[in-house]
Specification:
3 domains, six-stranded parallel sheet, Rossmann fold, 25 strands, alpha/beta
Length: 562
């Protein structure tokens, strides 16, 4: 098969399509992780269109867990492939549409698991594939896949998600999951990260402010199957103090924000919030599962046409819904699930005219629990004693930073002993909402290393060739090495921690180095991918070779590390 021809897509979407197409030729399960707002529906629908255009007799199945996601993918595919509308069938029993006779079938997993699938499908696309359980648990997803594989052992499966992890399980690929569980996807094939999209202007930056700590109150709420007990949580957040805090938070910090989205715990909580907001002069309404489809659609239309400026929801608008004008999110719903936390934030990060950033008012301690939404804390082992918080507090500027940071991202202060905070009289966990707190997790990390020592004498050498290969460190960690072969100087090596085996910081430097040497392309996420894409790098024809301990390094490439 030749190289696919690309239409008017973003550069990372083009790269993702190439990688997916290549890997589907060689692997039976392929996983694409794309942050909310990356346009993952465009990516897999464009892949379907191209396959069907090139191979008209091919059969493709699309599967999602909610009919809203099915319809979203269906209408996007029609817009990309209008001439193929007669080739697409819908299979959602809840809507009365079950057509399994077309070359492309788009349906819900519930309907597909109950129907006989006669077509010999070559490709299965699974949206929100973090819902696919482990192989040991089985379920409807594996039932459908098993029947498809029985008809065609060479079936290819493409999974797509923005959140490749599940509460209590861990990651949904590889081996980073709960003991005794096996993931369906062996590896992550391509990643479109949140920070990449923000840096390139495809999503807006995230700013967050937190309220008084809920740590003590939440510690009293029961936990069932890894998540807070909804009934107890609802009673807690329906207390007048919390309702009033939510309304006051919006009044103090929401000036100039025309569209606000609120996440509530329960129907009763949402209704109480709506009443409180309306009593203060806002135009608010709530959507939840007990409403009819027609009523929910009416409320959503009112929100879009400005009849409402506050939309409160209970588990309805976490997937498959977007309103780019949302510029403020009010979190009144604590969760232990990192996927839910990231999905909630994703409802407000899309770019819109006049929108500079997304402001998040966190009244649920979710940032402290999960950390940076670009790489949230994912746990899958049983706790052994108290775990350190996802965030640490700067005693100088009182802003939050990742727990692995040595330097405050906001003011540059180095973190010292814990006693510093006590000496300054700072009680960061009791900080009122009115104190500003800019959450820096969605921004690129600043350089925090010490200034480099004066370089040793250096000489220019011509680069004859280069390659990337895999090696292991003395501690057994997998690392990529960029090796330049120079005249006289021999091999000039550079470590590239593509997979973050050493630290998040070293992975950041490796990705920045790749961007520099490739002219701004999306960096690889695995060592194997880096080796396969080595030709993308534009290595200078002549480099300055310096001695660094036992290594020879090229100053032109080593510079970004300092």
């Amino acid at each position: 098969m030749g190289r696919l021809f690309f239409m008017d897509l973003r550069i990372y979407q083009k790269t993702a399509l190439e990688v997916i197409f290549r890997d589907l030729l060689n692997e039976t399960e392929v996983l694409l992780v794309a942050a909310t707002g990356a346009g993952k529906t465009v990516i897999f629908d464009e892949l379907i269109r191209r396959f069907m255009t090139r191979y008209p007799k091919m059969n493709i199945l699309f599967m999602a867990h909610r009919q809203e996601l099915v319809y979203q993918a269906y209408y996007k595919l029609i817009s990309l492939w209008p001439e193929g509308v007669e080739n697409i069938g819908l299979a959602c029993a809840g809507t009365g549409l079950v057509d399994l006779t077309r070359p492309v079938t788009m349906g819900s997993v519930q309907t597909l698991a109950r129907r006989e699938l006669k077509a010999n499908f070559r490709l299965l696309v699974v949206d929100e594939c973090h819902h696919v359980p482990s192989l040991e648990k089985g379920g409807q997803y594996h039932k459908v896949i098993g029947r498809l594989r029985a008809q065609n052992p060479d079936l290819r499966v493409l999974g797509v998600t923005a959140t490749p992890y599940r509460l209590g399980h861990g990651y949904v690929y590889g081996n980073e999951c709960r003991e005794g569980r096996s993931n369906f996807f062996p590896r992550l094939n391509f990643l479109i990260g949140l920070n990449d999209l923000i840096r390139d202007g495809f999503l807006v930056p995230i700013r967050a402010k937190e309220g008084l700590s809920m740590e003590k109150a939440l510690a009293k709420v029961s936990v069932k199957q890894g998540e807070y007990d909804i009934d107890e949580l609802s009673r807690l957040y329906q207390e007048e103090s919390h309702i009033e805090a939510a309304v006051n938070a919006l009044a103090v910090h929401g000036e100039g924000r025309k569209k606000a989205l609120v996440f509530a715990v329960s129907v009763a909580h949402a209704q109480k919030l709506a009443g409180a907001f309306n009593a203060r002069g806002y135009r608010a309404s709530a959507v939840y599962s007990l409403l009819s489809s027609e009523e929910r659609l009416r409320i959503l239309r009112d929100f879009e046409n400005d009849s409402l400026n506050i939309l409160i929801n209970v588990g309805i608008l976490t997937e498959g819904w977007d309103s780019p004008r949302v510029s403020l999110i009010l979190m009144c719903r604590p969760t232990k699930a990192p996927a839910l936390f990231v999905q909630m934030l994703g409802r407000g990060t899309r770019v819109c005219s006049g929108k500079k950033d997304l402001l998040v008012l966190d009244l649920a301690d979710n940032f402290k629990t999960h950390g940076d939404p670009a790489s949230p804390v994912v746990t899958f082992r049983k706790k052994r004693g108290a775990e350190s918080p996802a965030y640490r507090d700067c005693p100088a500027c009182r802003s939050l930073g990742a727990r692995e940071d040595a330097v405050c991202r906001h003011c540059g202060r180095r973190f010292g002993d814990a006693e510093e905070a006590l000496e300054r009289g700072v009680a960061p966990l009791e900080r009122p909402l009115s104190s500003p707190l800019d959450f820096p997790g969605a921004l690129s990390l600043p350089e925090v290393m010490e200034p480099p020592a004066p370089p040793p004498p250096a000489e220019k050498h011509k680069v004859e060739s280069y390659r990337i290969y895999r090696t292991l460190t003395s501690s057994g960690k997998a690392m990529a090495v960029l090796a330049l072969y120079c005249q006289k100087a021999g091999c000039v090596r550079h470590w590239m921690d593509i997979e973050g085996a050493s630290s998040v910081k070293s992975r950041f430097y490796a990705r920045e180095l790749w961007r520099k040497l490739s002219g701004g392309l999306i960096p690889p996420v695995t060592i194997d991918e880096a080796i396969a894409r080595a030709a993308e790098l534009k290595i200078p024809g002549e480099v300055t070779v310096i001695i660094d301990g036992d290594f020879r390094r090229a100053r032109e490439i080593w510079a970004p590390y300092h």
